Amino acid sequence: QVQLVESGGGLVQAGGSLRLSCAASRSIFSFNAMDWYRQAPGKQRELVAAITKGGNTAYADSVKGRFTISRDGAKNTVYLQMSSLKPEDTGVYSCHTQNAVLRQDYWGQGIQVTVSS
């Protein structure tokens, strides 16, 4: 079991930056990967970025070069640095991880990011 709590969302103008944080209630190295998803109004939830236990990262094509996922193991926190934001980045961003053995998914409560044009 793990609780994930996101923070750092809000309203920003196009071209601006935001940093999201996901604080976990236990060691993030307990899991194979930590992810950020987002869901825009009227669209399906999509994977935005992921970081593995080994530190490998992956990004959706739409955010490559603009978003950076990172972590602080001492704080059990994963970050999503978002730069050059576009209106199409608007949505609810959620932190996610999975217990691979139990096949149990864990989600944060989600946080709103709104990018105005």
Care to give the gist of this entry?
The chain has 117 residues and is mainly beta. The protein has strands at residues 4-7, 10-13, 18-24, 33-39, 46-52, 57-59, 67-72, 77-82, 91-99, 104-107, 111-116.
Search tags:
four-stranded antiparallel β-sheet; mainly beta; seven-stranded mixed β-sheet
Number of strands: 11
Major sheet details? 7 strands, mixed
Order of helices and strands: EEEEEEEEEEE
Number of helices: 0
Describe the structure.
This protein is an all-beta fold and 117 residues long. It is 0% helix and 54% strand. The protein has no helices and 11 strands. The chain has strands spanning 4-7, 10-13, 18-24, 33-39, 46-52, 57-59, 67-72, 77-82, 91-99, 104-107, 111-116. Strands 2, 4, 5, 6, 9, 10 and 11 form a 7-stranded mixed β-sheet that branches. It has a 4-stranded antiparallel β-sheet with strand order 1-3-8-7, with no helix packed on it. β9 (91-99) and β10 (104-107) form a beta hairpin. The protein is globular and about 45 Å long. The mean pLDDT is 97.
Lay out the secondary structure:
Elements: E1 4-7, E2 10-13, E3 18-24, E4 33-39, E5 46-52, E6 57-59, E7 67-72, E8 77-82, E9 91-99, E10 104-107, E11 111-116
Parallel strand pairs: 2-11
Antiparallel strand pairs: 1-3, 3-8, 4-5, 4-9, 5-6, 7-8, 9-10, 9-11
